[in-house]
Amino acid sequence: MRRQTVTLKDVARAANVSPSTASQALSGTGRMTEATRRAVVEAAQKLNYRPNAVAQGLRTGSVRSIGLHHLHAGDRFASDYFREFVTGVLDGTQRADYDLTLLSSNPQVPRNRVPRVDGVIIADPIADDLRARQLLDSGLPVVAGEHPPDGMPDCPVIAADHAGALRQILDRAAAHGVRRPAFVGPDANSGWGVLLRAEFERWCADQGLPGATGESRFGDLSVAEHRRVIGELLAREPATDLLVLSSEPIVQGALTALEAAGRRVGSDVLLACCGDSPTLAMTAPPTTAVDLHPRALGMACAELLIRLVEHDAEPPEAPVLLPAEVRWRASLPGGARVPLG
Amino acid sequence: MRRQTVTLKDVARAANVSPSTASQALSGTGRMTEATRRAVVEAAQKLNYRPNAVAQGLRTGSVRSIGLHHLHAGDRFASDYFREFVTGVLDGTQRADYDLTLLSSNPQVPRNRVPRVDGVIIADPIADDLRARQLLDSGLPVVAGEHPPDGMPDCPVIAADHAGALRQILDRAAAHGVRRPAFVGPDANSGWGVLLRAEFERWCADQGLPGATGESRFGDLSVAEHRRVIGELLAREPATDLLVLSSEPIVQGALTALEAAGRRVGSDVLLACCGDSPTLAMTAPPTTAVDLHPRALGMACAELLIRLVEHDAEPPEAPVLLPAEVRWRASLPGGARVPLG
DNA sequence: GGCCATTGACGAATCGATTTGGCAGTCCCT
DNA sequence: AGGGACTGCCAAATCGATTCGTCAATGGCC
Description:
With 341 residues, chain A is an alpha/beta fold. In chain A, 42% of the residues lie in helices and 15% in strands.
């Protein structure tokens, strides 16, 4: 095993004091003459002493590190959303001088050790994720970014206001004259998908419109699979004049499927996506999408968690909703009414 | 401070054995009857015992976490290179069941504690980064991804074969008839920039060609600034017929500057970039660039570091060079000769 | 029966810090 | 001179695990 090169004991010996005095001298606590304190500080400097964070962590119970758990985090840096989210979290943690630990996250293998962190952020909780469940049961403070699916233990939640943004899109689409809306999003594994689907169906019921829905397997990023799902939906519901999609990867599949079906996006059929990404501004035509401000969301998660960790503050009862903004583009314009059909 | 809910002592009490026996029972070491071992394991399960990784870390000297240090990591997730690099590192660490800790990295403020990690990867070491220096001095095993600049303490290095790729580009450009090559890259802060610049100048000397160079401040991502630098270079050396740029952000500035100067990329002037990114395939015309395989590089760093940490293996003497591939595109075609000028 | 080897379990030390309680010694006041 | 208040410093306990050496009990063998 790797031993510490210089320990507090060495410093104490060099300064001719006891370890306890040395500790107090360096942390600015305790009672002693200025001369003693200086002697210790100088000895520490001369020896290039750096306290062992693990030992400090054991004694004080805080390691100044926040854990970030995300299913398959490895693949997911590809997603703009997650990348921005992490950037936000990192902003928040670094501001408070915490490290950020990306937790090893093979969902199949539960993990033995409790990670050496003060608290955990679970990004995008998924129902069948064993490790997330472990973390929730571990007694560590946890904050979820996005709503956990049903059946997960409760924990404080910070989420974007998906429902509000979705309603804006649907209302606008109704103003454009849409009669046959459809929604495609992930299965029940994702709390976020369930929420969107429920909101979509509620809105359809309110308007007295038939709502068609399709399911994409959560986490599947392949264009081909999404194309298939959308193709089937269009075959089932050929009169569909609005497609609301949960996330950016599905849009690519939808565009292909729509083209194959001879439908023209922005006139024959309107299209919107519940999560934005730079590529959506570059599709032809550009796709209306919801900017979830993932960076702000990540930052908010970090800040809340650090507050919980440091001050044992009361966690918020209800989920905290952060505003989400619709970026209106040609696939479903925000302005003047488009002639449909 | 937050206390552990269930400790080894609790398990031992429940199983009617001493803590030492409990520890040995759970780790499969020591001598005891099968009955005793089972009793301990069952007690641990019933109490939902999870060992405290911090205490384990203190005792064993290993916390199963690798640190990743990168200057301003917060902003840098924007860079495709870094993102891919991190993904590779994450691949490598997760495969060995290590966590990855993104070290808080404000370069101005040196840090007191030695981080709770078994080793550190320094991505893209920069000369005036205090924290990188601290890490190198800390006694922790360190691996650098990319060459550290002169003046940094030695450490094992894994890097892409920049020089080889640059030579391929220059040779190809020479075959196209280039007479006035120019290079723009970061200042001496970056080991990578220094290496590229030196290789460029060596090649020019070998060929008996005059080589012009420009400097971009390292870490500056603004298009306007790069445009200015390239504009000045073009004013100074109007006959320039090849621009080799260190990294992707500079390309945007170069394209603007070249257009303003009325130069046509791919015919009047050839253009290449020493680091690839998806956007470079989408410029007009597409830009020839070097694919540094950042993901493979990150993975290699993680694997080497874990080997060093676990087996106290000998670090490689010389920098390990990973192959880099030139992606030939219209801005400097790899195939038939283009008529220059 | 006497001796040695082996087994099963445990006590105590250890990793490197923090923190509490207390012990001398000094100073001041009456 | 005696008592109280205060100062400067330290010993020891603690955080939660691991590990080494020890020891009593058992078994086998001559």
